[in-house]
Design a protein that fits this description.
19 helices, Growth Hormone, Chain: A, mainly alpha, globular
């Protein structure tokens, strides 16, 4: 208990408010998201290729939405965009639950993908605003713990509800989004740093033009490419794995939900300790080390058939996830100048959006036309490529001052961050 109180007092109150509100929002997402591929294939009687196509549309249009959102975040602030995203999420979720044909899903996926991801960069930028650099890895680690607490609740309940009614999942998620929007409006104020005098009159065109600066940051782009390769494999756990488990091994949605719950329990128990160990090590080297666990875990799906071994594979992947997720988020935030955080975080979204656009459809082609185990063999090979890429980044960039480990005893304590 004393340790928990100590951790609580190390971080500003506004950070904990964001954490609490995010937890509630995550419960709604985890009720629905893991079962979305199952919903599409079952409701419209299509294969994983068609489901992957819909998921790809969400991602490609979401990428455009993130770029718009990143510029708007830097220009107008974080809070209003997040509120817009929550309200739109409620409307779009109900629309997805009520649609009657696969053909109607196509334009709906385009619209929802474009607008639902507008708020993504604002969330990341808000955390970077609130926390000083030396606390960001731990801060993102805490968010991971809280997010995974929602995975204990969401998939378990979602798997049971999905057996009775997929529509009920959509309705519950929409209601939760509305509740979160009200809490966010009442409790959390703007965090955007005050603009410097030379930035006061930047036009919206100049703001969007700033993306050129991000895209010319070759070190940052190399980091993103390595992340995309890894992300293409990681995507399969939340898209293709549920269909693979059902069709190749006869495992019900509730069994898949328990696997994700097992992952969440591991994160809750060990994430904060892992983050405190990892933050003392070279970040790119830790990215390579974490991806090795991905390589082992995802490859296992193609070699085992016992349910407990599938659970073990998910736990191994989760160990890698506990290393990778806080480090990659902190690295992305530290690359960015304060006045460009929204745009850097929007481009950081490429590590999720591009794999999410390509990977589900590619996985669907493999699952529907070839030996399903081939999907996991390819995944293991891609993870190996990513391991080598992160290690190369460590050799090339690791000695630069901006990527050196910050010793806590050498940190000058910053002024107390702004609170509500």
């Amino acid at each position: 208990m004393d340790k928990i109180q100590k951790i609580y007092h190390e971080f500003p109150r506004k950070f904990w408010l964001v954490v609490a509100v995010s937890f509630i929002d995550r419960i709604g997402g985890t009720l629905l998201f893991p079962f979305f591929s199952l919903y599409i294939t079952q409701r419209f009687d299509v294969g994983m290729t068609q489901a992957g196509y819909i998921l790809g549309l969400f991602s490609i249009f979401g990428l455009a939405g993130q770029f718009i959102g990143g510029a708007l975040t830097d220009k107008f602030g974080r809070r209003n965009l997040i509120l817009f995203g929550l309200i739109f999420s409620a409307i779009s979720t109900l629309s997805l639950g009520l649609v009657n044909s696969y053909a109607a899903m196509v334009p709906l996926a385009m619209i929802i993908g474009l607008l639902s991801d507008v708020a993504g960069p604002a969330h990341q930028a808000m955390i970077a605003d609130i926390l000083p650099e030396h606390q960001r890895q731990e801060g993102f680690g805490i968010l991971r713990v809280v997010a995974n607490m929602s995975w204990i609740i969401g998939p378990t309940i979602g798997g049971l509800v999905a057996r009775q009614s997929f529509l009920a999942l959509f309705i519950i998620d929409a209601v939760i989004s509305c509740v979160v929007a009200i809490l966010f409006y009442l409790l959390i104020s703007e965090t955007k740093p005050e603009a410097q005098p030379e930035q006061q009159h930047e036009s919206i065109f100049q703001t969007f033009k700033g993306y050129g600066v991000v895209l010319r940051d070759s070190a940052y782009m190399a980091f993103l490419v390595a992340g995309m390769i890894m992300g293409a494999v990681y995507q399969q756990m939340y898209n293709s794995l549920s269909v693979y488990m059902r069709d190749s091994h006869g495992i019900e949605p509730s069994g898949y939900g328990f696997m994700l719950t097992s992952s969440a329990i591991v994160v809750i128990l060990f994430q904060f300790s892992v983050t405190r160990l990892v933050k003392k090590q070279p970040p790119f080297l830790m990215m390579a080390f974490g991806t090795i666990f991905y390589m082992i875990g995802f490859s296992m799906f193609g070699f085992v058939s016992a349910y407990w071994l599938f659970v073990l594979a998910v736990v191994i992947i989760t160990v890698g996830e506990m290393i990778i997720m806080p480090v990659t988020s902190a690295l992305a935030a530290n690359f960015a100048p304060a006045d460009m955080r929204g745009r850097y975080m929007a481009v950081f979204g490429l590590t999720w959006a591009i794999p999410a656009t390509i990977a589900p459809t590619a996985a669907g082609v493999v699952l529907d036309n070839y030996n399903p185990n081939l999907l996991w063999y390819i995944g293991g090979a891609l993870c190996l490529v990513s391991v080598l890429s992160f290690y190369a980044l460590h050799l090339v960039l690791g000695k630069q001052k901006r990527f050196q480990i910050i010793e806590e005893d050498k940190i000058t304590k910053p002024e107390t961050p702004q609170t509500v």
